[in-house]
Design goal:
It is a single chain. The chain is an alpha/beta fold. The chain folds into two domains: 159 residues, Rossmann fold (3-Layer(aba) Sandwich); 107 residues, Rossmann fold, CATH 3.40.50. The chain contains eleven helices and ten strands. A six-stranded parallel beta sheet has the order 4-3-1-2-9-10, sandwiched between helices. The protein has a four-stranded parallel beta sheet with strand order 6-5-7-8, sandwiched between helices. Strand 9, helix 11 and strand 10 form a beta-alpha-beta unit. The termini are close together.
Length: 289
Amino acid sequence: MVDRDGAIGVFDSGVGGLSVWREIVRLMPDEHILYLADQARVPYGERARSEVERFTHAGVAWLLSQNAKAVVIACNTASAAALDSLRQRWPEVPIVGMEPAVKPASQHTRTGHVGVLATPGTLQADRFSNLVERFANGVHVHTVMGTGLVRMVEAHQLDGKEVEAQLRAILAPVLEANIDHLVLGCTHFPFLAPALHRVLGDGVQLVDPAPAVARQTQRVLKQAGLLRACKEPGSWHFVTTGGLPRFQNLVTRLIADELTTERPVVFQSLELPDARAGWTDGYNRSVSR
C-alpha cells in the first residue's frame, strides 16, 4: 500500500522546478517533499526527446524507490517527452506534469496576441502543438526559444545588465507582435521575473503555470486519499546528480524565504543511472493499493 505519509516527489533537470516546489509548499506545508534535480545532465531543452525520456524515467524510478507517493514532473521538456510513457509504466502512481499555460493566456488576452517563452524541446513537441490547437481559439500564439536562459538560472544569473540585454534580444520578436501575455514555458524562467518585468513593461502579464500545477497535485492526492493527515510541517529533501556544495548554495539562495521555516531539511547528491531500452534502470518499484 502507498503510504500517505510518504513524500511528494518533484523532478526537474535542475533548480527550475523549485518554482513549482515553492507553490506546492505554500499550498501544502504539511507534506514531505523529495526534490530531485538532474543537474549532471541539465539543460534538457536542447537534448533529443528520446534522451530526455530516458533520463526522466530514471529520475522517477529513483523517486519511487524512495517511497514517493506521487510525482510532479516540474519540467515542461520532460513532461512533453515522457509524461505519457511514465503514466503507462506506473498507472497506479499519481503523476502530474507541466505544460505551457496557453489556455488561460488565450482566455484573458485583450490584444489577441500572446507569447510563449520556452525551450526547443517544449516548443517542438507534439504536445505543445496540440495544446495550441485545442486552446488558442483564434488567438495568435507567438513562440520564442529562451536560448541560454536555463544556464543563466543554474549559474544564479537572475538579474543585471547582461541578463536584461539577453532577454531583450530574445523577446524582441514577440514584443513587436503586440502581445499582452507572456507564458513562461520553462520552470526556470519565473526566477527571471524581475528582469522580465522590466523588459516587457507594464502592458504584458507573465503567466506562470506553477500555482495551477500545485493545485492539481493537491486535487489528485485528495482524490487518491493520499493527503498527509499529520498537521506538522513536512520534511524537505533536496537531491542532485551534480555537485552538492554548488547545489546546496543555489537552492538556499533561490528559496531563502521558505528555508527560514523550522523543519527537517536534507541535501544529498547521487549518481542517477541512465535508463536504456526497456527502462532497465534498476529502480523499478511495484506499487499496490
